[in-house]
Amino acid sequence: MAERSTAAVDVADNSDDESLTAQADQSTADGVVKNRERDTDTDEAQGSGGTEGPEKASPPELHSGHKLARRYRLEECVTRLDGFSSWRAVDEKLRRAVGVHILPADHSRARSVLAAARSSALLGDPRFVQVLDAVEENDLVYVVHEWLPDATEMTTLLSSGPLEPYDAYQMVSQIAAAMAAAHREGLAHLRLNPNAVLRTSTGQWRIRGLAVNAALRGISSDTPQRTDTEAIGALLYASLTQRWPYENDAYGLSGLPKDVGLIAPDQVRAGVHRGLSELSMRALANDGATASRHESACTTPEELVKAIGEMPRIRPPEPTFTAPPDYQRTTYQQGTYGRQAPHPGATQPVPTPPPPLQSRTGKALKWAVSALLIAALGLGSWQLADALLDQGNKSDETNQTQTTDEKSKDKKPPAPKPISIQGAQEYVAKGNAQHPADVGKTYDGDSSTYWRTSSYREGPVLAPYKPGVGIMYDLGSAQQVSTGTIGLYYSGDHTTVELYAADSLSPSSLDSMRKIGTATTSGDSATVKITKPVKSQYVLVWLTALPYAPGDAYSDSGYKQSVTDVQFKG
């Protein structure tokens, strides 16, 4: 009897409070087949191991329109190699595009492919194209994975030229961090090349084929961390120079001249960023040693992440603005509104002011007004003098009071000072965690990075499915906290943020903490003001209501939020 096992559908959270999150793999199917034939020849150049010879088992006779598990309809074959095939397909149950790898159940690599797919699915890291299903059924083994229609292969990106320094920096930063996380869980890629790296329309970099691509081709390595680190160095080298850092041409890129050796990127192409050039050489191998002459080698993705962190951050290029078109200034003349416009060439009469009033009546009126003024002044002069005497006795006391009041007004309360965040970790009150590896992005000073929640079917209020989601921050020591400002990625609907003071980084429950403030906003920032002074080393930022947002490269549409920056002042 056929055995069927499902690896994972959405490992971000359990199904009672999540919506399904996988969307799609790959960039486009165009050009994949012609690149696949080259891939098997370039693995030796990368030092990632060889491929086994052609299998005795023949590829299954499949065709467009064939259905797997009465659910996955095959649309187009994009790879057919070594006894397996890869397809673009449609998940008719969830109405979305997916990718499928298929091979016979008696294929010599079938067991290892299933094991690799299930291990990759358990990782659940959104920086990797997710494995959605791993199945053995009807003498077939097939692996279903995401298909990203809005993503572009790095091969395609480099066909038009090298990447800009900022894009290359983002690529190597994100890829190195993702691979470091994978290796911490015991997973390696071993076929990390421009075909396996994708950039989404939002600028995020994704990796496909973690563990699975190598298992499909029978690739292994005695030093998996070194293999993947060198592959990341090769990706950075290619992104800076549009050249492959080995003698053989590969992935649509020209190789280096033969018998010359490995040349630094800034010697291959003018204008290459010096720091990125040195970083790629630290990751690349040259006869077993680092190709860099100035810095130590990076032999693991973790060491590469550390080296990237020690570099000065590369900022995005300044946006260029085009000057507005010239416009004719209009002149305004006072008193001309409503008058008929003068004809060109016509002589305009100069208006003469009216003559002053010189009649006898006017002279009499002037004398009468003057007499009345003199009488009023004489009558009120003694009252004025008496009032001035009384006022003089009180002047000293009044002046002293005014001086005191002015000094008190000049004294302003001291401006709140930013409080440095020393550490943080995700706080889970119920269910599974959200994305604990990304909490550091909420106080790294970069508004383009963020920690995100999962996508929920019900909302905006999360209860009763979850009491909330959030992050506990360590301020280093007990601090007087007056406000908390939380930068948010999604606006619309409303987001509710609560702050709690805690006694530790991992309190036992919400009831053990003291609520110190709350705020609700429909914008991209929430400021929580604390009316009563509070002093605490640990502060929890707790989200209890989330806005509705459309689907993206990481999750389906639903109630979700992302935190970009968190700042406390006291």
Describe this structure in words.
The protein is an alpha+beta fold. It has 3 domains: 32-146, 2-Layer Sandwich (Phosphorylase Kinase, domain 1), CATH 3.30.200; 152-310, Orthogonal Bundle (Transferase(Phosphotransferase), domain 1), CATH 1.10.510; 418-569, Galactose-binding domain-like (Jelly Rolls, Sandwich), CATH 2.60.120.260. Helices cover 27% and strands 24% of the residues. It is built from 10 helices and 23 strands. It has helices at residues 32-46, 110-123, 154-159, 165-184, 212-217, 224-241, 265-268, 274-283, 301-310, 360-410, and strands at 67-68, 72-81, 84-91, 96-104, 131-137, 140-146, 152-153, 197-199, 205-207, 243-244, 254-255, 285-286, 289-290, 418-419, 423-427, 451-452, 469-488, 495-502, 514-521, 525-545, 548-549, 558-559, 562-569. The strands form 6 sheets. Strands 14, 15, 16, 17, 18, 19, 20 and 23 form an 8-stranded antiparallel beta sheet that branches. Helix 4 packs antiparallel against helix 6, helix 4 (165-184) runs antiparallel to helix 9 and helix 6 runs antiparallel to helix 8. It is globular. It starts with 31 loop residues before the first helix and ends with a strand. The model is unreliable at 1-60, 327-339 and 341-347 (pLDDT under 50).
The number of helical runs is 10
The biggest beta sheet is recorded as: 8 strands, antiparallel
Under CATH, the homologous superfamily of the largest domain reads Transferase(Phosphotransferase) domain 1
CATH architecture of the largest domain: Orthogonal Bundle
> Any idea of the CATH class of the largest domain?
Mainly Alpha
Report the β-strand fraction as a percent range. Answer: 15-25%
Shape label: globular
- Based on CA atoms alone, the radius of gyration comes out at 36 Å
The tally of beta strands, per DSSP, is 23
CATH topology-level fold name of the largest domain? Transferase(Phosphotransferase), domain 1
Question: What structural category do the secondary elements indicate?
Answer: alpha+beta
- In whole angstroms, the N-to-C terminal distance is 67 Å
Helix content: 25-40%
Total individual domains = 3
The chain-level mean pLDDT equals 79
What is the assembly state of the chains in this entry? single chain
- Unreliable spans are 1-60, 327-339, 341-347
